[in-house]
Amino acid sequence: MTQRMALYLQDSHDLRDGLDYVRYAEERGFEAVWQAESRLVRDAIVPMAAYAAVTSKIKVGSGVINNWTRNIGLLAATYLTLDDLAPGRIICGLGAWWDPLAKNVGIDRKKPLTAMKETVQVMRRLLNMERVTFHGEFIHVDGIELDVVHGRREPRDVPIMIGATGDKMMELTGEISDGAVLNYCVAPEYNDRALELLEAGAKKSGRSLDDIDRPQLIVCSVDEDHDKAFETTKMLLCQYMAQQPHIAKASGVSDEVVHEIQSILGWPATKEQINKAKHLVPDELVSKITASGTPEEARAKVQEYVKRGCTCPILYPVGGNFKLLIDTFAQA
């Protein structure tokens, strides 16, 4: 049965290899590719432009960029530019970022709900080619617009999605956005509560849950050797839990395990530290919160997320054979 499928790329591969993966995913019927922007390692916008330039059908999304570091005018102009490159194929995924990284670069993430709401409101109006005056707590603009002289002046169809983690942000996502980019490193049953919150938010704006798209990031390590696939995933999970403990909490990981991993990993973590800490990640956790293992095991796990409300799996290949993963979930 054909279903929506997407690929997630971060920084574990050469950027030029990523162009090959995206072209191959397009050939194999994937709907979209999402580019990460999390640690201080790889910007999302440059790869997105590259992916858009070498493909013709696949959608290209940011998964996700933060709403703090780009001025709203530049943010809207950036997505206008991407849409010029790939009309109707660009998705804007936004997130509230995370500490301590935000704090370490001088960003005070106060009132994240208000900041996100203002960003989405003004961004949407600008992409609708409106002239905007807005004075909120975080955004202050006077009579600005995307002043296109050469090119398309019509409103741009760029869905705005939010990568939400907390309950309040999830409910706000249902109220103001086109969809939620659901978290990875969570068990499928995590989605039950997320869908309740999204539905509550959707009702506030006169919509239903069906109006909210729900693509979901899923860590996916595929190898014909089950143990090799798990080993690769553990290297990711130990680093992820140490740097983003709020996600670890949402995954049900104990504070003791997180603290022990944090005591080993530095910032940024080295490969030696990761190899030392990865044994602390239990097999049960890998099975619970990722789709890792043989192709058959990975497919079965991904379907659990779909049954729990994920509308489009966004598969995150954490290493190994990228093309095997794409072939495992090929839709064409």
Describe the structure in your own words:
This protein is an alpha/beta fold and 332 residues long. It folds into 2 domains: 248 residues, Luciferase-like domain (TIM Barrel), CATH 3.20.20.30; 69 residues, no CATH class. 45% of the residues lie in helices and 16% in strands. The protein has 14 helices and 12 strands. Strands 1, 2, 3, 4, 5, 8, 9, 10, 11 and 12 form a 10-stranded parallel beta sheet that branches. Helix 3 links the parallel strand 4 and strand 5. The radius of gyration is 19 Å and the shape is globular. The mean pLDDT is 94.
What is the strand content? 15-25%
Classification by helices and strands: alpha/beta
- What's the domain count? 2
Order of helices and strands: EHEHEEHEHHEEEHEHEHHHHHEHEH
Number of strands: 12
Mean pLDDT: 94
Using only C-alpha atoms, the radius of gyration works out to 19 Å
| Approximate shape | globular
* Sheet with most strands: 10 strands, parallel
In CATH, the homologous superfamily of the largest domain goes by the name: Luciferase-like domain
Count of helical regions: 14
Termini gap = 11 Å
Q: Kindly provide the name of the CATH class of the largest domain.
A: Alpha Beta
Q: What is the secondary structure topology, with strand pairs?
A:
Blueprint lengths: L5 E4 L5 H13 L4 E4 L9 H9 L5 E4 L2 E2 L5 H14 L4 E6 L5 H4 L7 H16 L4 E4 L4 E5 L15 E4 L3 H10 L2 E2 L9 H15 L10 E8 L3 H18 L1 H6 L4 H10 L6 H7 L5 H7 L1 E3 L1 H13 L4 E6 L4 H7 L4
Helix pairs in contact: 3-5, 5-6, 6-7, 8-10
